[in-house]
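Quick one: structure tokens for this chain, please?
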Amino acid sequence: EVQLVESGGGLVQAGGSLRLSCAASGFTFDDYAIGWFRQAPGKEREGVSCINRSDGSTYYADSVKGRFTISRDNAKGTVYLQMNNLRPEDTAVYYCAADADLYCPDYGSLSPGDFSSWGQGTQVTVSS
């Protein structure tokens, strides 16, 4: 059974940093692309970042490019999302997701429908 557990969320002031972790179990981690999504109250789930299974190439939404960095440690079965220079508009529940067939896009948007497994989410709140 695929399990994804997010951690690292919290309350931070604007301009601060957080590092989210997504710990995976129950599947061959190396074979899966991993994505990060976020959902603010009343808004649709938004694709934030993605890292591929093979070459580790990455995707970032324009809204986070230059501020967020995704990385993966295959030995630990964990993906990280380093978030710097946080803004109040980054406030949301952050979810990680996994899929064995997906290749992260080079540009454009990341679709929640492309991922087959999801974690429960971790809250990130950025105060102004």
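The radius of gyration is 13 Å.
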